[in-house]
Amino acid sequence: MLYYRKTGSGPPLILIHGLLGSCATMGMLARGLARQFEVLAVDLRNHGRSFHASGMTYSEMADDLAGFMDEMKLKSAGVAGHSMGGKCAMQLAMNFPEKVTGLAVLDMAPKAYEPIWKDDIQMLLDLDLTQITRRDQADRILAEKMPDKAFRGFLLQNLKRSHDSGFFWRSNLSGILNATSDIRAPISGRPYPGRALFVRGGASDYVSDSDWDDIQSLFPAADLKTIARTGHLVHLEHPDLVTELLAGFFGKKN
């Protein structure tokens, strides 16, 4: 089963992280939403503490999530995902509409994207972890070719200290790199008729105005909110505002 963290009480709400994230990266949202919901933040396959697998198609990951809900004895739940996790949430809603009481997608469209972060993942794999004794040492090495400190910090959340005081990558970086074609692919299936909320960053290029027709063709009841002057990591840049949007959306009666 997928690894997860559960907080709060109330109607169930599943949170799904993006590429190279984990349930921990959804922590600020989880803490805010736990005042109103039973929040289940999951680690997707090949991420965090969840199992490793060769494939990462969205249908496979939707099956993982549906199986997780069955294991947790959840007939249905609200589902919110960011980036790649947003595509997983969309595919879950399309494949198992009876399981999804409402869908929220953070800065992602159902379309195909150009491969992202391949070079960055390769840089992580190229680090000689046997020579790394401190996390800031890894950060300094990466800084030579990866100038964005916040992005480096995000990626280095995957670097963990082992019992012998060495370091290891918790996520399956090689598996993720090999699954690039799966991750960049569009989602498809029967339109999801339920309520949906798409939240995009006004300074992000992941969801453009031209994507809206495609979104509505698959999610005809969707609404769109734009957070001005915000990049792709909307939930990390404005956790309080995104929490408020999600709480309002999932708190409404169908």
Count, helices? 11
Q: From the alpha-carbon coordinates, what is the Rg to the nearest angstrom?
A: 18 Å
- The count of strands amounts to 9
Strand order of the largest sheet: 1-3-2-4-5-8-9
If you average the pLDDT, what whole number results?
A: 95
Low-confidence segments, given as residue ranges, are none
Characteristic key phrases:
globular, seven-stranded mixed β-sheet, alpha/beta, 11 helices, 254 residues, single chain, two-stranded antiparallel ribbon, 9 strands
Describe the model:
The protein is of the alpha/beta class. It is 37% helix and 18% strand. The chain contains eleven helices and nine strands. The chain has a seven-stranded mixed sheet with strand order 1-3-2-4-5-8-9, with helices on both faces. The protein has a two-stranded antiparallel ribbon with strand order 6-7. Helix 2 crosses helix 3. It is globular, with a radius of gyration of 18 Å. It starts with a strand and ends with a helix.
Element layout with pairings:
Elements: E1 4-7, E2 12-16, H1 27-33, E3 38-42, H2 58-71, E4 77-82, H3 84-95, E5 100-106, H4 118-126, H5 135-143, H6 149-155, E6 159-161, E7 167-169, H7 173-178, H8 180-184, E8 196-201, H9 212-218, E9 222-227, H10 234-237, H11 239-251
Summary of the model, kept short:
The chain has 254 residues and is an alpha/beta fold.
